[in-house]
Specification:
- The chain is an alpha/beta fold.
- Helix 8 packs parallel to helix 9 and helix 9 packs antiparallel against helix 10.
- Helix 4 links the parallel strand 5 and strand 6.
- It is built from 15 helices and 9 strands.
- It has a 9-stranded mixed sheet, sandwiched between helices.
- The longest helix has 30 residues.
- It folds into 2 domains: 182 residues, 3-Layer(aba) Sandwich (Rossmann fold), CATH 3.40.50; 140 residues, no CATH class.
- Bound molecules: NADPH dihydro-nicotinamide-adenine-dinucleotide phosphate.
- The site of NADPH dihydro-nicotinamide-adenine-dinucleotide phosphate has 22 residues, from helix 1 and strand 7.
Length: 334
């Protein structure tokens, strides 16, 4: 059983100034909850809309290097692909001037693949929420915690795990019902996160697309009915919720016997095929091949990603879906 923690000691952060770098999805939510928990929080951002939003929310906002200069700890909450530029452009120099610093990441990617190599004076910790920012906020409003994976890459102070737990508590993950911190590592977090992004999520979307094509083009089914059946009715989301709450196989009890029989026999049919795909994707992630591929894509200005978005985003499925979702929102036909 993995090591689980349900609370942390916030008092070790009490005399520190914490800079939240990046006031986006995670940054805006984590900063607000840290402040609610009585900690001193400042925000570091470029001067633009996010800066103004942080000011409106009552934070002192500084240019990133100035925020780091004023802080004892920083939560680096910018997108993973820009974090190395932000770190080396605006943070590293300031951090090296200090006696000691605490640097927190919400994902393991940049440390795992050596894209950020923090200074030797720094405790390097990870508190990675297993939840979208809006989900964190929703649960926080209800007085609930949420799961995080925690890790330590450098433990200069000898207290890095305590800092990771304190930040987990500070951002409302633990110390509340439903909250757990699972002892993990930067490498494990990056691996698991990428593996789900490269396997079951694209496999689900690919099978939705293949289903749509076959059902509508080969068998003449109504495109709208197909999309409703696939995901627009919200049944898929309900099934995912039941999986989380009741278990992967246990949730099948909510389905008819025809459905249960069909699902169980087809899981067996597909399993070996899919397992081979998962194995080869895992190998690409583990060996760093994917990180190299993505670094090249980033250098190209994300050509492949933008092209694929354009091609898939203008498919027949998306055109029908757009009409259907608009109609469903209006609650009536055109
Ligand atoms: P966002 O995309 O919401 O981050 C936006 C922030 O990053 C803004 O403050 C933006 O400021 C800043 N930013 C973007 N580009 C640059 C740049 N080139 N230079 C300086 N600042 C920049 O990020 P998320 O909150 O989604 O992700 C933050 C971290 O949290 C990541 O490590 C991610 O993996 C992790 N995470 C995210 C989850 C989520 O719910 N999204 C869930 C769990 C973990 P501006 O553009 O104004 O400069």
């Amino acid at each position: 059983m993995a090591e689980l923690f349900f609370d942390g000691d916030l008092s070790i952060l009490r005399d520190l100034t914490i800079a939240v770098i990046g006031y986006g999805n995670q940054g805006s939510v984590q900063a607000r909850i840290l402040r609610e928990n009585g900690l001193e929080v400042i925000v570091g951002n470029r001067m633009d809309e996010y800066w103004k939003r942080a000011e409106k929310d009552g934070f002192k906002v500084y240019e990133i290097s100035e925020a780091v200069r004023r802080a004892d700890a920083a939560l680096l909450l910018v997108p993973d692909e820009v974090a190395p530029d932000v770190y080396y452009g605006k943070m590293d120099e300031e951090i090296r001037k200090k006696k000691f610093f605490i640097l927190d990441f919400a994902s393991g990617y940049n440390i795992t693949y050596g894209l950020i190599k923090p200074a030797a004076n720094t405790d390097v910790i990870m508190v990675a929420p297993r939840m979208f920012a809006w989900g964190i906020l929703e649960r926080h409003k209800q007085g609930l915690g949420y799961p995080v994976l925690i890790g330590v890459a450098q433990n200069v102070s000898g207290k890095a795990w305590d800092y990771a737990l304190a930040i987990s508590r500070g951002i409302g993950a633990i110390g509340l019902p439903g909250g757990i911190a699972l002892k993990s590592s930067f490498e494990e977090e990056a691996f698991l996160d990428l593996l789900s992004e490269h396997t079951y999520i694209p496999l689900l979307i690919a099978s939705i697309m293949a289903y749509f094509e076959v059902a509508t083009k080969v068998y003449g089914a109504s495109p709208e009915a197909a999309i409703l059946e696939l995901y627009a009715s919200g049944e898929l989301a309900e099934q995912a919720k039941a999986m989380a709450e009741e278990g992967l196989i246990e949730q099948l009890k909510h389905h008819s016997r025809t459905s249960q029989y069909g699902q169980l026999t087809r899981i067996r049919r597909y399993y070996e095929m899919i397992r081979d795909i998962v194995e080869s994707e895992a190998e690409e992630i583990w060996s760093g091949e994917f990180a190299r591929e993505f670094a090249e894509e980033k250098l190209s200005g994300m050509i492949m990603m933008n092209r694929l978005k354009e091609v898939l985003g203008s498919s027949d499925l998306v055109k029908v879906e757009k009409r259907l979702l608009e109609t469903l929102k209006r609650g009536k036909l055109d």
